[in-house]
Each structure stands twice: as C-alpha cells, then as structure tokens.
Amino acid sequence: MTKIAIFLSLALAGAFQAQGDTKQTKYVVVVNTANACNQSGKDAQATVKKLFLKELTQWPGGAEARPYAREGTSDEHAAFVKLVLGMTDAELARHWLKMKNMSGTTPPKDVDTDRMVLKHVAKHQGAFGIVTADAAKGAEGVKVMFEF
Amino acid sequence: MKNPLTISVAMLAVAAMASAQEGVQAEIDALKKRVNELEDSQEKNEEMLGGRALVQAFSARSLDFGGHVTSLFTYIDGESDSEAGHMVSLVELYLKARIDDHWSAFATPGFYTFNGALLDNPATPFVAGDPLFVADDISQAKTFLSRLVTEWRNGDALVLRGGVLGTPHGVTNREYFLPSRIVGQANLHARYFLTNTLYPQIVEGASASGKHVLGQNWIEYDVYFGAEDNSAADGIGGARLGYTLSDFGLTVAANYGRGTREATAAPATNFGILQSPFAPAFNLGRDYQFGGLDFDYRKGDVLMRSEAYYSAEDGFEDQRAASIEGSWFFQPQWSASYRFDFYDRGEDLNLFTTTVLPLGTSTEHVFGLSYNPNDSVRLRLDLHHNNLPGSDDTVDYLNFSWSISF
C-alpha cells in the first residue's frame, strides 16, 4: 500500500513537473514609475513598437523615449521581435539599415540581464525595456506596461 | 509525556533551523547568480575594449562613428561593342554627435573614385551602342560631402536642420546612402550622385520637418530652402507632405519644389556617364517647378517603392519621370527585385546643331538579386535593359556591387 502511494505521488509530481516545463515564460515591458503614459493593451504595444524602432522619439505626454534592447541571441529579444514588433530578425535588420542611412539613427543599446534593464529603466524617466515577468515583480522604480 | 514534548520541540527547532538554512542558501544562490552575471558582463566589456585606448568625445553626450564601403563593377553590352570594368568605389564615414536632448550634428565625409561608364560613346554618333569607359577619376580618390547637418530637435513635431541636407524628394533619394539600396544603381532620374536633374537631391540651406501622430498613424512634413553647390545665389525650395499608415507599412507623399537650373560651365564634357543615358547638367539654364508623388510599402518580406514626378521647365519642354521597384525577400538573406524606370528628359541646347532639341525618353527594366550574408554586408547582381533615348537602340548591363556597413 505504501509502495503504491509513493509510486502515485512520484507520478503526480512528474506530471506537474512536465506541465511546468511546457509553460511558456512570460515577458513584460517595464517603464519608469514616473512615466505618465497610461496606455495599455494593444495601444501600449503599438506605442512601444514605434518608440523602440525610433520612428517616434517621444512618449505621449512629451517625455523623451529611451529604449533598451536585449541581446540578439536572447529569448527576451526573440519574443519581443515576434510578438510586439511583429517582425522577423531580417526585417528588423533592414529597418535599422534604413534608419542609419536616412539619419544616422542607431538601434537601442543591448542590455545583458534583467537586473541591468531594471536599473536603467528605474534611473531614466523615458526608459523602457524587456524583462521576464518574474524579474519585474517587486522591482523598485519601475512598473509593468504590458505583458506578452 | 515530557519526552515526546521535548522531542517535538527539538524537531521543530531542527525544522526551523533547516528552513533558515534553506533561506540562507537561496540568498547565497541568488548572490552567486548575480556575481556570475557581473563577471559575464565584465568579460564582455573586456572583450570589446581589451587593453586599447578609449576614444572620448570632447563635449558630446554620445558620439556614433561608422560608415560604409561600396564598390560597383559592370559589364556593358551595346549593339556594336561591349565593355567591362570598374565603375565606382567609395567610402563614406558617418559621424553623429549628440550634445544634449536638443542639439546634435551628423556629417558624412566621403572619398570616391570612378570611371565614366558611358552607355554610348558620344564621339561616335553614327555608331549605335558602343559603350566606353572614360578614366574620369581613375586612381585619384576625390572627396565629397553628402551630409553636414546641425540639428535642433524640439520633439517629434519640430526638427530644424541646417547645413548640407538631403532633400525629402523621391524614395531612393530619401534613403540616399548606398547600403540601403537593393538595386545598386539609382533610378534614371536620380542616377547621378547628389545632382539636380529633375529634383534636387541635396541642398545647402535649412529645413524644418516633423511628425504629427494621429492614433496609430502619422503625418510627416518637410520644408526646405537654400541653394545648390554650383549656384550659391539662386534660391531653391521645396516641401513634402506624407501620411504613414503604420500598421499597413505604407507611406504616401506629395512633393513640390522650385528653383533655377544653372547652365553647365563645360558643355563640351557634358555627356551621360555613370550608366546614365542623359548628361548630369543642362547646357542652358532655366527656372523650374516640379511636383510629384511617392509611395513606400514595407511589410514582411515585401518592399515596394514608387515615385512619379513632373517638372515644368521655363522656356523648354517639360520633364517627366516615373519609377516603380518591388523586392521580395524569399529567404531572410536573399531577395529578388524588379524595377521599371521611365524618364523623359525634356529638351536642351544640342552642341552639334546649336539648336534646342528634345533630349528624348529612356526606359529601363532592372532584374536584381541581392544576398545579405549578415546584417552589415549586401552583395547585388543587377541586370539592366535600357532603351536609349532618341533611338531604337538598347543596351544591357550587368552590375555586380557590394556594400559593407560598419
């Protein structure tokens, strides 16, 4: 009886573990707590897309936008490009080539870690960046604009 | 009874200690993770900097430095003869200094060397289709300055610029620098670098531009006024008003401009070079007014660009031009393109007859293939089929070019 109970417990634990493994990591775009933009959902995504691509340089309300990117090989970058920008990496590269050749505009700076993104965003009013949803929990000086 | 109680208390104490130890362990693990991240970051920085000296800007908040190197080789096949060789190589350096939230400067000093690459030898007017290379600047790199911009930005709605500026006309001209081009050669009416054959491509003067956001879309405007480098006293001016449908990836724009075309100082050497069927300048000066429409569509793997312009030339036949270009990125690194150009050059003084004659109309079909092995390198192979103006003669040319951005 005891052996059966142990077997069932292990099987159940295994099932939960497997479920945990398939669960997708959630990412969020964080902004400085002083950011006055109160958009959410699709509108917020559209605004962040334009600011990240530097098609616009100001938040609604006038603050200068300061986007931070994640490393090109990171999961955060891949999810952001696909789900928020709605582009492929090749399309994004063509966009930055165009921006460089029209006005000398450079892509946002890459930041390696969630913690460093949170530091930068907490420090500058118009800053925003991409971190995992877990990393944003309880972080000081930032707020979540939307999840993806 | 006492023993079980003592045992229970002891067990609880052990559990509490174990739990506290787990908390400490978790804290140590988190600290270890952070130290690892810092070490990774330090390693990355050292990899980039090594023991080399750092460049510091004197007073700029940020200083971006880059540029591109581009070369173009060609094989030209006329009806009577053919030629193969090097047409142009150039390097342009990009310098952008940002002083504060409002002020910045952007300059692109360049060096180039080119050979004439004439589609038809003008010295043999009775021989149809005999291309020729004229060693115009061979082995002698010259300098040029396509952008020298001082900028004051009040926000997206108002940006003021002064210096040597790109004009806003034409979709290829707006993205002037060659690495952006999917087809190496510009369209027929903007083929010459930085010149004004139909509309000016650069202006020495000042401009105001900006964007006004309307929901997800925006209106963009550009207004400029100044002079051209060959005619400092003749004012030129123009404007562009565009509307961008952001989600759809489409921008449409209307353009207007006016000015004076200065007559060339050397009519005897004013003939078509750089694979243009028309000369870079006019033998007789005149005033002009032009209007035009352009559209730019970029969505996913498809890029479509088109422009159509009309220029009223005071005292001469008017000019008309149109160009449509489509590219399909069938692989992330590969694209196939087609472009059609039409250019009616109006009329000008003919030096042989000493009368004013129509310069004719030229059309061109371009089939292009480009390969981008990485984000900074673009290789192009373009086949052009050109109908020369004022005749039934055609000329084909195959251009191989590359651009490396850095």
Relevant terms:
heterodimer, A: 148 residues, alpha/beta, D-Maltodextrin-Binding Protein, domain 2, 5 strands, 18% strand, B: 406 residues, mainly beta, Porin, 2 domains, 16-stranded antiparallel β-barrel, 18 strands
What's the short version?
The complex is a heterodimer of chains A (148) and B (406). With 148 residues, chain A is α/β, with parallel strands linked by helices. Chain A has helices at residues 2-22, 41-52, 75-85, 89-103, 114-123, 133-136; strands spanning 27-32, 66-70, 109-111, 127-132, 142-147.
Description:
The complex is a heterodimer of chains A (148) and B (406). Chain A is of the alpha/beta class and 148 residues long. Chain A has one domain (25-147): Periplasmic binding protein-like II (D-Maltodextrin-Binding Protein, domain 2, 3-Layer(aba) Sandwich). Chain A is 49% helix and 18% strand. Chain A has helices spanning 2-22, 41-52, 75-85, 89-103, 114-123, 133-136; strands spanning 27-32, 66-70, 109-111, 127-132, 142-147. Chain A has a 5-stranded mixed β-sheet, sandwiched between helices. With 406 residues, chain B is mainly beta. Chain B has helices spanning 2-49, 171-174; strands spanning 62-77, 82-98, 103-114, 142-155, 158-166, 202-214, 217-228, 231-245, 250-261, 286-299, 302-313, 319-331, 334-344, 347-350, 355-358, 361-374, 377-387, 394-405. The longest helix of chain B is centred in the first third of the chain and has 48 residues, at 2-49. The termini of chain B are far apart.
